């Protein structure tokens, strides 16, 4: 009898232990909403996406799946796309670019550049207001640009600015020390957005947690490691816009998750579509792909400090051995144009049609290699970042091309963080990466990839050519027009002949979208404008 | 000591006293737990720094100037020697109980981790309950139909599912039940409230359970067969006690121990396995945070996750030992 009761007690004990465990776990979970409610506003719950697609045309919530969360709104200290494309919803520059990359007045009603290229005068639009309802003045613009000059940051103003003056409430005058033609276009960078003077009376930290700008959207709730919810800016200067009530940036950091959520209608658009998934989305009845030409050039970079690739004949031989047309079609399923010169077609002064590049010819490639210090070929390695199947494919095609002329290429695939570490130290022979412009300005890519005095040392190829450097400087000071075009064509021809990098193709931007979405504007920098977006009922 | 007044505690201590003294057992267990945690935390601290890659370059991108990189490295204390960083880290952990501020999110890593713990724990708990229930049913069916068709089926199926990668199972479940049938959300936890959370975690929990069930069923079945043939079961049957009672109350209970130990060990694997499952299902748990943090080289968060995961695994280990002591009939003789 005693034995039996002990046994019963033991079963009770086991069960109660188990229950305690379950309750403890359940307790953890139910307490979550409370915890976030009492926490800071940045810790709020992700918004529900239910019913997003059944909303009427005006209003509604648009959910945009992105692979990385927004971690900061400090426009002067940020550069990566995850932050840049959230910052540009809140802060807007004086001038901007449209979906074709053409420069247009944005917060400025008009702008004027003096004939000596030194004085820039901007007149602000009438009735411009920040999202908190206060007027935008020229003093705000002076403050914003001055902070950018002071901070420097990863996308610094490269013009030598002499003075910033608010001539009156609506007129801003910028004086430069020396002419610098790219300046007006570079002002369209998201980092030149306008914010209230003195951060609207708040501290820097407070301000960027709850940023106030002129953009179409205002931050409603934000988890730096999760989702971001915007609501419409009711003071937006484009009358009646945005049509949406809310815009949610939903963190989905897995490609197949993103595709499946789009197909199931849990999100309205996805920021990244892998090339191999594009046709599936295009053919789907509920989904489509929005495209635009990008400001990106996919390239094979050759380290000119490397014992083999320091020889121009070796570089030319490798360029001649690669069938860029074939590579482009194989890798991108026809969703990109093969490249012959450095600048993508969406950038002014591109010379894809005029530059004579080294076109695929194995015999010529062999002859070129024979002229080099390594006529019998050699072994080298090609560095790529892992996790990008297109790049892996490109590497294999290049490997086969090299083999045909006696260059034995080993592919070394390392994780992105390690990849960056390697090329920042010039610790590579060849690598595949892409060059990208931030604004529709030839100098943007050219300076980064040819300036031997810049910190990137010609995109870590260490390529130096005095003629190229001279042309680069001339191009920066020559006013827009035929003269500038000639300089850049000449420069690109030299690059095509000496090939410190082999341009492979110009990728298209691919944004996966639900079919009921209208008015989405895909910009060539891969950002998206949402102010015209409307959701039609399905 | 008030051990006698607290009968439940007394019972636990007594039941776990496979070694003569309960106090010695407790001290030993705690020492063992502490050494595991110290080893894990130290190893992770230095290993993550041995891996090439720099958090600063991940934040500032490829276009950052050398000056900007240096400034940020100094701000984050990454220009110190590894030993100085380790001392700073230990100090932070011991004094503030925090593993430092996240480099990428500029928030307390403890807060980031605690925000994500509920989803992961709930996922593991659901997966455990599912595995236990399904394994018990399958094992009983197999053991009572020894060498029948049902038994063979139940023995073959686990072999098949063991061979399927977890993320692939997850992807299949998403395609069938979410994209085509629309029964469950494709990913993430949609909606607020406990029921919504449970509902959203159904497919992920099934996916995790899938990887656990095969070994549990095998172990439970083998043990049950052994017990079924033992003398006391024969006696019970002969005494006319209903078959169901014999099976559940005596056979299952006496066979559960090895499976329970297995589940306890597997808990550590599950913690690691959630990394894949959470990514496949877009869940914001510890696993996906770890994945992101490793990609970004967010050292403080990685260290924090290692610390709390080690703590969790150690606690589960202790609990399993306690429950095993309760279940193990041999402890009866010593009490």
Account of the 3D structure:
The complex is a heterodimer of chains A (538) and B (335). In chain A, 34% of the residues lie in helices and 22% in strands. Chain A has helices at 2-38, 81-90, 138-151, 183-186, 204-209, 255-263, 278-283, 312-321, 324-332, 362-370, 389-404, 416-424, 442-450, 457-460, 466-477, 482-498; strands at residues 61-66, 95-97, 103-105, 108-113, 119-124, 161-168, 171-176, 217-222, 228-232, 246-251, 269-270, 287-293, 296-302, 336-338, 378-385, 407-414, 430-436, 501-514, 517-518, 521-522, 528-529, 534-535. In chain A, strands 1, 8, 9, 10, 11, 12, 13, 14, 15, 16, 17 and 18 form a 12-stranded mixed beta sheet that branches. Chain A has a 4-stranded antiparallel beta sheet with strand order 4-5-7-6, with helices on one face. A two-stranded antiparallel sheet of chain A has the order 2-3. With 335 residues, chain B is an all-alpha fold. In chain B, helix 2 packs antiparallel against helix 14, helix 6 runs antiparallel to helix 7 and helix 12 packs antiparallel against helix 14. Chain B is globular, with a radius of gyration of 24 Å. The model of chain B is unreliable at 1-5 and 331-335 (pLDDT under 50). At the A-B interface, helix 1, helix 6 and helix 12 of A face helix 1, helix 3, helix 4, helix 6 and helix 8 of B.
Task: Provide a compact summary of the structure.
The complex is a heterodimer of chains A (538) and B (335). Chain A is α+β, with helices and mostly antiparallel strands.
What's the layout of helices and strands?
The complex is a heterodimer of chains A (538) and B (335).
Chain A: H1 2-38, E1 61-66, H2 81-90, E2 95-97, E3 103-105, E4 108-113, E5 119-124, H3 138-151, E6 161-168, E7 171-176, H4 183-186, H5 204-209, E8 217-222, E9 228-232, E10 246-251, H6 255-263, E11 269-270, H7 278-283, E12 287-293, E13 296-302, H8 312-321, H9 324-332, E14 336-338, H10 362-370, E15 378-385, H11 389-404, E16 407-414, H12 416-424, E17 430-436, H13 442-450, H14 457-460, H15 466-477, H16 482-498, E18 501-514, E19 517-518, E20 521-522, E21 528-529, E22 534-535
Parallel strand pairs in A: 1-10, 1-11, 15-16, 15-17
Antiparallel strand pairs in A: 2-3, 4-5, 5-7, 6-7, 8-9, 9-10, 11-18, 12-18, 13-17, 13-18, 14-18, 19-22, 20-21
Helix pairs in contact in A: 8-10, 13-15, 15-16
Chain B: H1 7-15, H2 22-50, H3 55-60, H4 66-75, H5 82-96, H6 109-144, H7 149-162, H8 166-180, H9 194-200, H10 202-228, H11 231-238, H12 243-280, H13 286-296, H14 299-327, H15 330-334
Helix pairs in contact in B: 2-14, 6-7, 6-10, 6-12, 6-14, 7-10, 8-10, 8-12, 10-12, 12-13, 12-14, 13-14
